[in-house]
Specification:
The chain is α+β, with helices and mostly antiparallel strands and about 375 residues long. About 40% of the residues lie in helices and about 20% in strands.
Length: about 375
Amino acid sequence: MDKVFDKVGLIQIDSVNVLERSHFLPLFSRLGPYAKPLLESAAYCAPDKRRLFEYWGHEASLLPVAVQPLLRWRMERAERGEGVYKDIFAFARDNRAQIEEVFQRVCEHAPAGVSDLSDDEKRKGPWWGWTDTKTALEWLFWTGRITTQARRSFERIYDIPERVFPEEILNTPTPREEDAQRELVRIASRSLGVATETDLRDYFRMPVAATRLRIAELVEEGGLFPVEVEGWTHQAYLAADAGIPARATPRALLSPFDSLVWERSRTERLFDFRYRLEIYTPQEKRVYGYYVLPFLLGDRIVARVDLKADRKQSVLHVLSAHAEPRIDRNRTASALAAELKSMATWLGMKRVELRRRGDLGQDLAPHFSG
């Protein structure tokens, strides 16, 4: 698991649970069936054993604890309202006394979640019906004054950093902002291999001007090489230590929030694969389905499947399966069927149920008959 985080740098967290919480899926894509408690125990455990923490990386993310000092500049900028949702900053600016009161309650009563600290507050405002306490906690989390100690039914359980992080991380000096940003760009470049400025900036959601400066500095010192990629219209960069495999042999179902595909324009440039998440699209207007996973085979994305886990009936539903153009349909169906069966077993589902929606359904059907 540590090697995966060394490679990808961070894993995005998302609340959608129609299949499985998204942060569990990238490890399955790269390792195959693994024990999910391994991830949870690395992220939510005693400080001296903690290897992961939650913060805003690429959206809400799980990151190695060693990265925490590299994100302190973001916490400091948040204090000034930079990078924070405007409504949260406005609340914090106008309610300093309440912010400090909530912070003291965390110090005294943590580990605790919103439900432990909100009493009988009424939900209000535009932030998903948040209470004032919830808004205060989000502000404190963004500025780094509190952090996630655990999760309870996906609810964040908060505590102060001094009771969550390993002592060596707490004692690590805060790097200069430009040094931290340069290291984040370096991590992004190692994770992406070859990438444009936009790709590198998006990985940790970095500021535009700062990213350009950091890229130029890395090019000058030899950490990045400017390269041209046939068909790309923008300058690309290659990490100096990027490995080039002799051939690509993966077989993986990818979370919609996997770092390989989360930047949709990059996905299209790399794989000629146009991908849009249709969760917020009205059902009658969806083309492929609600929670669609791309299927990577070798160096191509060859198909996409809409999946749903029925935990009560112990069934992994394949609601639709669509093939990409110019693929070997038999090879694709065989590999995809094997991956779906593997995923079902990993999720604790007793069987896979296929609905023949999509042009790949008929090719998959023989693999699930009988």
